[in-house]
Q: What sequence folds into this?
């Protein structure tokens, strides 16, 4: 009897063991396919996102900057903030399942769809997920780029995949590629509903003293008159950010308005070599438009050498801030429709031959777009690195421009504001108030958007 009971116990133990092994090896995974368990990648334990370097992100940033600079038509000015932001969000969502302390942005960003879920209990190789997502996002945002650029996108994706497939093993690699592509598809489809496609609908500007009108030499129509209607990334990001209105239009030499414009003219008559260089450095055309902020951030991240998880967080948060700052700025621009300095200087101050350092951008003056975005961008970077941070911006070394060094993000923001005044394209008031608006937007985003659980 005792022997029979012993046999029964042994049989029970054997059955439990067999059932346990079958469950752990996933003998009946989804779609009846064999899956590697989460604990194994190519014979090794699966690792979290913070184990990997940021190489995949840095290489794709370089690719995106090249696409911004060389794709036809050139998408300078404000629009590059969109691919910067959406691509960075896709990167974050492609690797956040490997970041236990962090959460998806779905449910926080306006109308953002639910993200695909990883298969529970099965391994993913996060650089592969990132590579698939970033390749797809860049293809989607730059469909009309040159064949040479398209070939470079393919080459970069394949170059990284050759390494990642060896690291991950075939099954984990394929699963990771599929996940990254699924994330990119949802994010890009979401981006198409933000209103940017309607930003340049037909527009007739109001007419009257002090109101914006097309400026020489191109006399181009207003760009993005409805950009301010675009969907905000973060609900409430513009709360309390509306700047104090500019001085009331006047031709009286004693008025604040007259003195505001006269300052621009006076500065133009005594520009130093460094002031001219600063203005041209932030012209960003030729260059990357607002992609300059992405270039600055990449240089800072390369200096910091964070792991992939931190890089994904910083890129996403900064990109989101740039987008919402641009929307807030454009809403204000087309509410006030303030004229640019060139018109007043030529027609009221009586200097018909006066000109700016480069062509005035085709939209109202107040507030300055570059200043608003710089304020928001700087505020986000302070949150990660502190204000007193030293870095050098080498963005335009390729154009032969001297790099510019900074000891704080406030210093960076001030130089960007000053650059627009030195160029003759903005009033100082527009730059200072734009910077204040941007800082408030950045603060709102830092308060409202939560990456950590």
A:
């Amino acid at each position: 009897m005792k022997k029979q009971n012993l046999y029964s116990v042994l049989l029970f133990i054997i059955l439990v063991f067999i059932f346990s092994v079958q469950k752990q090896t996933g003998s009946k995974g989804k779609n009846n396919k064999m899956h590697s368990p989460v604990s194994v990648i190519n014979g090794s334990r699966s690792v979290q996102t913070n184990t990997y370097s940021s190489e995949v992100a840095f290489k794709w940033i370089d690719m995106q900057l090249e696409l911004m600079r060389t794709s036809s038509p050139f998408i300078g000015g404000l629009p590059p903030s969109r691919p910067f932001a959406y691509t960075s969000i896709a990167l974050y969502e492609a690797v956040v399942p490997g970041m236990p302390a962090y959460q998806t942005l779905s449910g926080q960003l306006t109308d953002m769809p639910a993200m695909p879920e990883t298969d529970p209990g099965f391994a993913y190789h996060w650089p592969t997920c990132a590579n698939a997502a970033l390749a797809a996002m860049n293809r989607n945002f730059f469909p009309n780029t040159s064949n040479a650029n398209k070939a470079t996108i393919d080459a970069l994706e394949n170059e990284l995949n050759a390494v990642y497939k060896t690291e991950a093993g075939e099954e984990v690699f394929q699963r990771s590629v599929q996940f990254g592509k699924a994330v990119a598809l949802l994010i890009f489809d979401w981006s198409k509903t933000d209103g940017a496609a309607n930003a340049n609908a037909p527009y007739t500007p109001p007419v009257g003293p002090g109101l914006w009108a097309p400026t020489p030499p191109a006399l181009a129509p207003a760009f993005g008159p409805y950009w301010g209607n675009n969907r905000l990334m973060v609900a409430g990001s513009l709360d309390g950010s509306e700047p104090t209105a500019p001085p009331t239009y006047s031709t009286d030499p004693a008025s604040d308005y007259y003195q505001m414009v006269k300052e621009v003219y006076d500065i133009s008559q005594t520009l130093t070599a460094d002031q001219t260089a600063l203005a041209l450095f932030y012209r960003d055309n030729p260059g990357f438009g607002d992609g300059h902020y992405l270039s600055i951030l990449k240089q800072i991240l390369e200096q910091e050498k964070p792991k992939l998880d931190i890089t994904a967080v910083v890129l996403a948060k900064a990109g989101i801030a740039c987008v919402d700052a641009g929307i807030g700025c454009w809403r204000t621009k087309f509410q006030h429709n303030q004229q640019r300095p060139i018109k007043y200087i030529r027609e009221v101050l009586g200097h018909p031959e006066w000109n700016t350092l480069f062509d005035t951008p085709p939209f109202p003056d107040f507030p300055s777009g570059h200043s608003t975005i710089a304020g928001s961008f700087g505020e986000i970077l302070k949150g990660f690195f502190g204000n007193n941070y030293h870095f050098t911006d080498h963005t335009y070394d390729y154009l032969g421009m001297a790099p510019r060094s900074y000891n704080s993000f406030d210093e960076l923001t001030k130089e960007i504001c000053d650059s627009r005044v030195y160029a003759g394209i903005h009033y100082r008031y527009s730059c200072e108030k734009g910077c204040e608006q941007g800082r408030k937007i950045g603060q709102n985003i830092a308060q409202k958007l939560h990456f950590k659980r």
Notes: The radius of gyration is 26 Å. Residues 1-40 have pLDDT under 50 and may be disordered. The longest strand covers residues 391-393.
